[in-house]
Design brief:
The protein has about 200 residues and is of the alpha+beta class. It has one domain. About 40% of the residues lie in helices and about 25% in strands. The strands form 2 sheets. Strands 1, 2, 3, 4 and 8 form a 5-stranded antiparallel beta sheet that branches. It has a 3-stranded antiparallel beta sheet with strand order 5-6-7, with no helix packed on it. Strand 6 and strand 7 form a beta hairpin. Helix 1 runs antiparallel to helix 2. The protein is elongated and about 95 Å long. The termini are far apart.
């Protein structure tokens, strides 16, 4: 025969066990909800970074094309190396394309900006997917948002007394590039990344 006081202890322990189990389950679901939100935020930030970089890279390509066309035909071709002579007509389209590849949408297009004297683009995106169902109300309809800014930084310097009608040597962060306006070939220009750096603003 089981003593009555043991049955009483067992009866008191069961509600505590159920209560603790409920707390642990709630904590697990809450942790999962926060993990979902963090994953959505990370995905949104990656999409924003990619879109901003795409916008800046598109304008960098425009700069290189403009520089290529100016050498030998425009005595002010060295001005293109300042990195600010682009129009940015394709920047928003480039940002939209990269955002779409990351299942996101650019809000308001790629906005021209200046950071520490360098031109660039600021982009804000919203994910097309939601955070997902969780114990936190409303997450099933909530989209993650993020923003990023990318800048175009010139990498080449030249002598202050350089004559743009004569051969000029560019120093692009240690890479020496010789340009002769009177005997210029497009192959004389190095890769765009040598002339201009594109990176996210800190």
């Amino acid at each position: 025969m089981t003593p009555s006081f043991l049955c009483g202890d067992r009866g008191q322990t069961l509600p505590i066990y159920i209560w603790l189990t409920g707390i642990l389950l709630f904590a697990a679901f809450a942790f999962f909800a926060f993990a979902q939100a963090a994953s959505a935020r990370n995905g949104a930030q990656s999409a924003a970074d990619a879109a901003a970089l795409a916008a800046a890279q598109d304008s960098r390509d425009e700069l290189v094309d403009g520089l290529m066309g100016a050498i030998g035909t425009d005595d002010h071709w060295l001005d293109w190396l300042n990195g600010d002579k682009f129009h940015g007509t394709g920047a928003s389209a480039a940002a939209d394309r990269l955002a779409a590849e990351n299942d996101s949408t650019v809000l308001g297009g790629a906005q021209p900006t200046v950071v520490n004297g360098f031109p660039g683009y600021h982009v804000e995106i919203e994910t097309r997917y939601t955070v997902g169902d969780s114990i936190i109300p409303g997450t099933e309809n909530r989209h993650a948002k993020a923003h990023a800014t990318a800048v175009i930084e010139p990498r080449c310097t030249f002598a202050t007394d350089a004559d743009p009608t004569k051969p000029v040597q560019l120093d692009c962060d240690g890479d020496l590039v010789d340009i002769d306006p009177e005997d210029f070939d497009s192959d004389d220009l190095p890769d765009a990344s040598v002339l201009f750096s594109v990176h996210l603003a800190e």
